[in-house]
Design a protein that fits this description.
The chain is α/β, with parallel strands linked by helices. It is built from 14 helices and 15 strands. It is about 40% helix and about 15% strand. α4 crosses α11 and α5 runs parallel beside α11.
Length: about 475
């Protein structure tokens, strides 16, 4: 469909050369024909009124009307009484060679894709209110590029929130607003590379593709470090020679284990002894069910930990808003890199988020979502107990994903493929392992963006694949 331009007369780039020797009407006709033939003007698109086009080009209205009449006679334009002049449907150029059509995804009964919150529960009325309030009270100075660290208002609110809720040693002056986790990680690795770091370690299983891509972009080598029931293996980390490590201590991605207290102190001691830095991904600590909250690792060693937080899980990934709690030695290089990257994140969105948090609406949304995710977690546990009792779940104490341990001998890839054919999206643990090994066979089941009914129907549809009764 053509774009339906609003306004009395849509703009159109045309020029006339009064010194060329060609008649002005002929020039105008030629340019309009070319614009239609090339597809610059699409079939059905509205042209400027003859009066407006004449005014813009400094021509007589009669000349423009003659041009429109000629092109109408040739079939390029159509004019109806009381309506605008438009490009004729038959004047549309031949379409280019068709590009390969993307593979059509089948309709899914349930999609257990992990890392996605309940998108339908995004608090639209609260966000609109916060945006209006931010715009209403926006100081004129905030419309400039401003501090590349981000809005002072948001940095103060985020720092206060993280001190209160996460036990972080947060200081607005040492906080840098970024465009989500990906940019935060990229900026941090680049800053560390400039300081001489050559190797960065990451948890295995974890997010190997993300870690390696960010490391490669920063000129670093990424190496995996195993995770056990107590979290990242610090002795194995020490053996890698790395001077940075990416960890998820509050709720390890994807196993769900919590970094044990002795490991926390080991990790901090390693960083101090190696002149190294820990990059803490605090991705879903807001959602917890069966245990007390675990404080931020950054609160124990603010000079050695870069804590990356976002609202991608608490609100929605599309907002692209996050923050870095920086050690004093890194705040200046990170600020410089942020300035080079994009000169700062969007100011109005930052101020809207600040208003949302300080108004209490953000906390209210989190309370509502904890109840929603808890109910979906219960639905998942119940459905598996009923339809596939041989499957054991772990990692359920927080967040909105769980690890399903399949019976020995199960082929993970086959389960995923056959489930997809039945309209159920399942995802294997092999994607989270550096080796891509499917042993032991496990699934990472996200339940954030799938309803309780869909969870029950989806598990029932694949019960026999999981070791249950057909």
């Amino acid at each position: 469909m053509p774009v339906q331009w609003a306004g009395l007369s849509p703009a159109l780039l045309l020029t006339v050369d009064r010194d060329s020797g060609d008649r002005l009407c002929a020039q105008l006709e030629r340019q309009l024909r070319d614009a239609i033939r090339s597809g610059r003007l699409q079939a059905g698109e509205r042209l400027p009124s003859s009066r407006e086009l004449a005014r813009i080009l400094g021509l007589s209205r009669g000349l423009v009307q003659d041009c429109y009449a000629q092109l109408q006679a040739e079939g390029y334009l159509v004019t109806r009484v009381g309506s605008a002049t438009r490009v004729a449907d038959c004047a549309q150029p031949a379409p280019p060679a068709a590009a390969p059509r993307p593979e059509t995804r089948p309709h899914l009964i349930a999609d257990f894709r992990h890392g996605v919150p309940d998108l339908a529960s995004f608090p639209v009325p609260d966000w609109l209110w916060a945006t209006r309030e931010a715009a209403r009270t926006l100081p004129t100075a905030e419309l400039d590029y401003g501090d590349p660290r981000g809005s002072r208002a948001l940095r103060e609110v985020v720092a206060g929130y993280l001190r209160r809720v996460r036990g972080a040693a947060a200081d607005p002056a040492l906080t840098v607003v970024c465009s989500g986790y990906a940019q935060g990680l990229s900026l941090t690795l680049r800053a560390l590379a400039h300081r001489g770091t050559r190797i960065v370690a990451y948890e295995d299983p974890g997010g190997p593709d993300t870690a390696r891509a960010a490391a490669e972009a920063a000129g670093l080598t990424a190496v995996p470090v195993p995770v056990d029931e107590s979290g990242v293996d610090v002795r194995a980390l020490d053996a890698t020679g790395a001077r940075a490590v990416i960890v998820t201590p509050a709720h390890q991605w994807p196993t769900g284990v919590v970094l044990a207290p002795d490991r926390r102190h080991e990790l901090i001691a390693w960083a101090a002894g190696r002149d190294a830095y820990v990059i803490e991904d605090d991705y879903d600590a807001e959602f917890r069910y069966d245990r007390e909250p675990v404080g931020s690792l950054q609160g124990l060693a603010a000079d050695r930990v870069v804590s990356v937080g976002t609202v991608s899980k608490s609100l929605a990934p599309a907002l692209r808003l996050g923050w870095l709690l920086c050690p004093p030695a890194l705040v200046e290089p990170l600020t410089d890199l942020k300035r080079i990257a994009d000169r700062g994140s969007p100011a109005l969105d930052q101020l809207a988020l600040a208003r949302l948090v300080e108004s209490g609406r953000y906390d209210r949304h989190l309370r509502r979502m904890r109840a929603t995710y808890a109910a979906r977690r219960t639905a998942l546990v119940t459905a598996l107990a009923q339809h596939a009792p041989a499957v054991r779940l772990s990692g359920l104490a927080a967040g909105f994903h769980a690890v399903a341990h399949l019976p020995d001998g199960t082929d993970e890839a086959t389960v995923v493929a056959q489930a997809r054919a039945r309209g159920v999206g399942l995802y294997g643990m092999s994607d989270c392992r550096t080796s891509k090994s499917a042993l032991p066979p496990q699934l990472v089941l996200g339940f954030g963006n799938v309803t309780e009914r869909a969870i029950s129907e989806g598990i029932a549809a694949v019960a026999d694949l999981l070791g249950g009764e057909p």
